[in-house]
Amino acid sequence: MSGLLVVAVGLMIGSAAAVLGPRLNPVHPTNQVRATPPNPSPSATPTNAAQLLGAVAAADLPEIVTVVAVGSASEELGTGWPIDATGDFITNDHVVHGGESLHVLLASGEQYGAEVINDDPGLDLAEVHVFGLRENPLPLYNALPLMGAPVVVLAARGATGEDPVTTSTVDGLDQSATVENAGPGELSSYTGLIRISAKIYPGNSGGPMLTPLGQVVGILTLAAQSGQGAFAIPIAQVDEVIQTWLNG
What we know:
Elements: E1 4-6, E2 9-12, E3 30-33, H1 49-60, E4 65-70, E5 74-82, E6 88-91, H2 93-96, E7 101-105, E8 111-120, E9 125-130, E10 150-154, E11 165-179, E12 189-196, E13 208-210, E14 216-224, E15 230-234, H3 235-247
Antiparallel strand pairs: 1-14, 2-5, 3-11, 4-5, 4-7, 5-6, 6-9, 7-8, 8-9, 10-11, 10-13, 11-12, 12-15, 13-14, 14-15
């Protein structure tokens, strides 16, 4: 069995080196069940997929924000991305769950106040409104990617301490995972996940997984505790909820 962890960063309040030297939350050991999709086959991808993914990352990275949820004794860092042009961003519920106050940071260091306006712990999904910040929304792709499809995942600069751009390929569909030490009220059992082969890091939680056409096909949520591999919630699984939020 592989270990997994929820990929938000936990920081102790009062640390002057919070971003440079984050103190991570304890790892949540999990049990993973690897489902084999029916008749998997590599997707027909453009020969210039790497160039397309690079262009997508360059265009969309400025739209990505660090989500900071402040609790009574710690801060939780994750990634958020714009879902509309009115200041609303998508992230994971486990990033903001239990936060007593919320703000976002841009790569420039600018800070904006924020609040959770919609939340579904059962999907590990949250919508955050950021006051005074307007970004270009990322388009959604509400179908599952094909096995072998190239993707790029984005994190907020400074949220992970690593490169915010990770290119990878889809190497699993309909994956399941159980987080043994999830916090109170947090999702502990995931199904239907997309697996990618690349390693991602704490702080990637909530980040978008994008196709070479710049469409969000998944939301990063879990990482393998050791070795390669990461998992995303498919947009196909949460699109109806997101559309209800946007139309509400």
